[in-house]
Amino acid sequence: MAAISGVGLSWRSKVSERPSTKKKPSRSSSTTIRLCVSSPRIKMTVSVEKKQFSIQKSEEIFNAAKELMPGGVNSPVRAFKSVGGQPIVIDSVKGSHMWDVDGNEYIDYVGSWGPAIIGHADDKVLAALAETMKKGTSFGAPCALENDLAEMVISAVPSIEMVRFVNSGTEACMGVLRLARAFTSRAKIIKFEGCYHGHADPFLVKAGSGVATLGLPDSPGVPRAATIDTLTSPYNDISTVENLFNTHKGEIAAVILEAVVGNSGFITPKPDFLNALRRITKENGALLIFDEVMTGFRLAYGGAQEYFGVTPDLTTLGKIIGGGLPVGAYGGRREIMEMVAPAGPMYQAGTLSGNPLAMTAGIHTLRRLKEPGSYEHLDKITGELIRGILDAGKNAGHEISGGYISGMFGFFFTEGPVYSFDDAKKSDTAKFAKFYRGMLEEGVYFAPSQFEAGFTSLAHTSEDIQRTIAAAEKVFRNI
Ligand SMILES: Cc1ncc(COP(=O)(O)O)c(C=O)c1O
């Protein structure tokens, strides 16, 4: 694990001037070339002006969107509320880069919030999707591709002996909660402050991420009855978990958590936190659920459970296993999964679940990830990135801490260490917002919230990282 906080680092990036922006062939150039031609003898004056960062088209489109969709978006954090200013409207993505509708190019560290681990719009994934599409887009009936992805997931993830595909991480967490309650015949669950498990009612309690970003304590519309059985504990706090089990003996169905938190920024478990949870749940006849929607296939091919060597009873997945198409999954021990209908009595269903397009994108994404060297690459470039950012911040006199594991990282504008959501909230979010806007203008796209993790991909290069660090050095000096 590579959690770095408050440590004086000697690593230095080799920073040159900001390299010229990579060009995408069909896009407008970032320089303006004026040719002045006069006769009879032809004289040419060429003046090159750096294009000003402008997001005028984004503004127009987003203003129109606000009349059409609540807040102009279909998922809240995209609206840039916590960093202020104008969200950029994306036109296209490829590899580690993306382009907005104004023609600005960005190095992308959001990766569609995680799925794009092999890089955006991978040629092989696109070709496979085109082939699958020739046969149709949805069957609503069994198809062999479901078996292929299921076998890949089962052989990769230690806890999963059987799997059910759904359409989003939210759906996966809803399903797994019902299953845990059905299997144990108990109602209560423990979740951790700052962990996000999708937007189903029982989980919208101290749910980090978007909720924290908007400053809403919980969401109106969630009835008390829906959350009455949701118990919460600070992350990394075993004594609170023990107290909850003592107070609610025989009532707790499951403990659910992000084994590495990505929805309050990037927070790692203290040594032995996960082992202690494994022990306590076992002793109390409760299930341990790892929500690996974000960490699955990202921290390691077998997810956080492989990385930390702790096997939960149930696991949720999403994001990467759909390769950029809508997907989710939950799985676990066979005896538990056989409770799910129609093998067992616990009902859960989905019109588009296991559809051939999502299965295809997932299969080809996992195949690429399984190639030798994938996780070594993620580790190398993400380490380089986070060390460079922390160094740059400290050299410019800022309090900053952060860390990474494999292709997942984060940093906070606080000295750290950050072990819980309360620690994360000590971060100077106003400074983060300034940093964020500065980086955007330098062509670097981070998640628009201090309380979100960042992601790298197999498509990120050392050049991307060096450009990002150079940009960070410049922006840190100006905030
Ligand atoms: C850990 C975790 N669980 C669940 C979800 C919900 O997934 P989705 O947005 O696909 O519904 C997310 C989304 O970011 C997540 O990070």
Poorly predicted runs are 1-47, 213-217
Q: Indicate the CATH architecture of the largest domain.
A: 3-Layer(aba) Sandwich
Quick one: CATH superfamily of the largest domain? Type I PLP-dependent aspartate aminotransferase-like (Major domain)
What would you call the quaternary organization? single chain
Overall description:
The protein is an alpha/beta fold and 479 residues long. The protein has 2 domains: 56-122 and 372-478, Alpha-Beta Complex (Aspartate Aminotransferase, domain 1); 124-369, Aspartate Aminotransferase, domain 2, CATH 3.40.640.10. It has helices at 56-68, 123-133, 144-156, 169-184, 209-213, 224-227, 238-247, 273-283, 303-308, 334-337, 356-370, 374-395, 421-424, 429-441, 462-478, and strands spanning 2-4, 31-38, 43-50, 90-94, 97-100, 105-108, 162-166, 188-192, 230-233, 252-257, 287-291, 314-318, 328-332, 401-405, 408-412, 444-445, 454-455. The strands form 4 sheets. A 7-stranded mixed beta sheet has the order 7-13-12-11-10-8-9, with helices on both faces. It has a 4-stranded antiparallel beta sheet with strand order 1-14-15-17, with helices on one face. Helix 3 packs parallel to helix 11 (356-370) and helix 12 (374-395) packs parallel to helix 15. It is globular and about 60 Å long. The chain starts with a strand and ends with a helix. Residues 1-47 and 213-217 have low confidence and may be disordered. The structure holds pyridoxal-5'-phosphate. Pyridoxal-5'-phosphate (PLP) binds next to helix 4. Pyridoxal-5'-phosphate (PLP) binds at residues 113, 168-170, 173, 196-198, 258, 262-263, 291, 293-294, 318, 328.
